[in-house]
User: Fold this.
Amino acid sequence: MALELNRRGFLTAATLSATAAATTASAFAIESLPAQAAGWPKSALWRLPPHSGAIAWTVDDGKSYDTVSKYIDFIEQSGIRLTFFVTTKYSSWLKVQPRLQPLVNSGQVQLGNHTMNHPNLTKLSAAQVQSELGGCQKFIHDHFGVESRPYFRPPYGYLNETVIKAAADIGYSKPVLWLGSLGDSTPISEPALLKLANTWMTEDRILIGHANQPTVTHLYAQLLKILQKRHLKTVTIKDVFG
Assistant:
């Protein structure tokens, strides 16, 4: 059984049977029910260790070249640390490679695997899962010279036993989920995004955003103020989990 997460906001979870709960990323979005963590995949990362003083800002996809490029401007100017989960079907990543490479080399930016074509991995065979992840890994290695394993983000947050095992068998043993969203995988207004940012930009979170829409590019100054007001440092996934 796969779980669909509401990527626009509060990350609602489907009701799971006892059997499915043992093998599926269940209600990891609902912070008010931490006891349900017992049913989440043991290998999944969805938040930082307690009292970290940090937030892991992660950005998926890369559909919009302009948004990816302006994220790089923001990273350069602000000094924030950020993890991009790369979907290789988008040409943005090749276009920004010369500018992004120094940030990757320094470790300020981490590149994670978000598959080649952004499919629902739970609908694929093990071999197809490995092809999606392996193709993305080859792209990242060939064009940026870095290793993305063991971290990957399953599109839509969908996981099941087949995906977890197939990914682990080729070195992707750490699916990275999230506990807070900027809601911008699809168009969103500036007030709505800022409302989500104020809700979810808090200590110990793995935050998900997307490089697909222009809205976030108009709000970098406000988002940075939220981080500064809350005394939150930004970290990559690798900074925390090695």
Q: What stands out?
A: The chain has one domain: 44-241. The helical segments are 18-21, 65-78, 92-106, 126-144, 161-169, 190-200, 220-229, 237-241. The beta strands are 54-61, 82-86, 109-113, 151-152, 174-175, 206-210, 233-234.
